[in-house]
Design brief:
Glycerol-3-phosphate (1)-acyltransferase, seven-stranded mixed β-sheet
């Protein structure tokens, strides 16, 4: 169900990924694409999504590819430690990021450059799979907002649901039969016009970035509410306040804590 043809060279790595992953995803899931035409056909942009499963990036890439865009991800730096995988990821234009380190600044710079070169950069603003018990979006990190306020590019919110039925959060078993329905819905660009009109110092201030981040998370959550037909909790889950680690499998950590 290709809605819009790709209008740029794929490169060998991206072509290989499409040849392998698209048939695989079609084999394990039924797609429902909603409002994908809201993804810009060209030009630099940031696409922001909720995060419920390790295969989210593959499903998001599938959605974007079917709407004529190649996804550029901020990928965990550890993935680049393997020589072959590093070659593959670099060829596919992916961006390494070492979370919670000074190297994350370099990833931000690379993401800004990619947007200015007309690329579609994908960001999961939660920074990890959601820790919310109901799998609603958590509080967001500032990366996507900072990129948008730095470049003036559109931020397109996208929500998906059903991916967690194919592969549960931190799960290891892919559910193949019966095929699960995965719904992906794109929204209108997040309104940041008032912030973009501010002088540079105010535009990139902590307050402006936080305001933009809150709007990004609200937009994603609203789309997810539409898909699920439910209302999200009034207060967004904050793992720091809840004392939940942002790295590793939280279920294993909880079990370890009980054992101790």
């Amino acid at each position: 169900m290709t809605v819009r043809d790709l209008d740029q060279p794929r490169g060998w790595a991206f072509g290989l990924a499409v040849a392998v992953m698209k048939p695989t995803l079609l084999a394990v899931s039924k797609r429902v694409w909603i409002d994908g035409e809201k993804i810009p056909a060209s030009g630099g942009c940031v696409v922001v999504l909720n995060h419920v499963s390790h295969i989210d990036p593959m499903m998001a890439g599938h959605f974007l590819y079917d709407h004529g865009r190649m996804a550029r991800y901020l990928a965990k730096a550890g993935l680049f430690s393997n020589k072959f995988l590093r070659t593959f990821l670099n060829s596919a234009g992916q961006i390494p990021v070492a979370r919670q380190t000074a190297d994350a600044v370099g990833a931000y710079t690379a993401a800004v450059q990619a947007v200015r070169e007309g690329q579609c950069v994908v960001v999961y603003p939660e920074g990890t799979i959601t820790r919310d018990p109901g799998l609603w979006p958590m509080t967001g990190k500032s990366g996507a907002a900072r990129i948008a306020l730095e470049t003036g590019c559109p931020v397109i919110p996208v929500a998906h649901w059903g991916v967690q039925d194919v592969l549960a959060p931190y799960g290891h078993r892919v559910h193949v039969i019966p095929r699960r329905t995965v719904t992906v819905k794109a929204g209108d660009p997040v309104d940041l016009d008032d912030l973009l009109e501010l002088p540079e110092k105010e535009r990139l201030s902590v307050q402006s970035v936080q305001t933009a981040t809150d709007r990004v998370m609200a937009a994603i959550t609203g789309l997810l509410e539409d898909i699920r037909g439910e209302t999200a909790p009034a207060e967004r889950f904050d793992p720091r306040k809840a004392g939940v680690s942002m790295t590793g499998n939280p279920h294993k950590q909880q079990k370890k804590g009980k054992d101790n």
